[in-house]
């Protein structure tokens, strides 16, 4: 089977909700990343066959074919197509899968997989709220689905709490995990580890190039003072991911394109896996998805040098570690979404960008990325570092 290679990877710094990136239109935010990928790859932008863009809340400024609008806002010629996809939090990771599949099938040679989410300008859930406010229909889940699963709606907060309860994670343990995320991210910033992966975004206040949500002064006492997200629960805003504005992307190319455009790959795609399970507990699916990905790749967990498991809530990577027996020292070594933020549709290629740069810095060979997604779905991507 033909190989798919990652040639370039970049992301913006994460902006707090109503923070530094709040004045930037989502299409312009995504365009910054597209321009950076072409510059880093050093290729003619007219050679891009397609742009696949992940975005979860496709309404307002993120509606009306955002993927195409990002292309039109960028330096790419208007001859380059663009499409928007939604696989919830895994949207841009799925964009990467689609891009790699297109290259591996031989139907395309150069595809950009990217993602963008402005959680300030297009609030999470606003696309559903607009529909409900207009009094149109029943919302996302018809009575047939509600009766089948015995719930009026699927709720990620309840799912994350159910996982915490299932594995017996205390509030204190999850707060300790959250604190470690901030500490690792703060250390990475201080050491300049994110500098190579972040592309600056010009704002009214000047260039923005430093993750805004990391709290170097985080403490267990401060985390302990936060109220639970659900009554009687142990999850809080402190041990859950932050609402964030941001964009990210990777450029995927075939072997033929590497030769045609004289491109230097930084990684090879080893495995692409997506699975689905219980939509009620919802967020536990990265565990069986990881097992399947490793089996399909003919690899063991010990073969993987670094893991990126999205910190949607502390209970998710904690459960992943507990169920698989993975080495916590290899997990989210530069912090995760609890500290760095979770810009929904952009998080997939954001995590991949960080994973690739961390592999390069540490000399690791293989990396595995996974994240929980709405509806009980999970993507897993395994890559091999080449430089």
Roughly how many Å is the radius of gyration? 20 Å
Q: Element order, helices and strands?
A: EEHEHEHEHHHHEEHEHEHEHHHEE
- Tell me, rounded to a whole number, the average pLDDT: 97
Low-confidence stretches: none
Approximate helicity band: 25-40%
CA-based shape: globular
Distance between the termini: 22 Å
Secondary-structure map:
Layout: E1 4-11, E2 15-16, H1 26-41, E3 50-54, H2 66-73, E4 82-85, H3 91-105, E5 110-118, H4 126-133, H5 143-149, H6 156-167, H7 171-190, E6 201-203, E7 206-208, H8 220-224, E8 244-254, H9 255-261, E9 267-276, H10 286-297, E10 306-309, H11 315-324, H12 337-340, H13 347-362, E11 366-373, E12 377-385
Parallel strand pairs: 3-4, 3-5, 10-11
Antiparallel strand pairs: 1-8, 1-9, 2-8, 5-8, 6-7, 9-12, 11-12
Helix pairs in contact: 1-2, 3-13, 6-11
Can you give a write-up of this model?
With 387 residues, this protein is an alpha+beta fold. Helices cover 36% and strands 20% of the residues. Strands 1, 2, 3, 4, 5, 8, 9, 10, 11 and 12 form a ten-stranded mixed β-sheet that branches. Strands 6-7 form a two-stranded antiparallel sheet. α1 crosses α2 (66-73), α3 (91-105) crosses α13 (347-362) and α6 (156-167) crosses α11 (315-324). It is globular and about 60 Å long. It starts with a strand and ends with a strand. The relative contact order is 0.21. The mean pLDDT is 97.
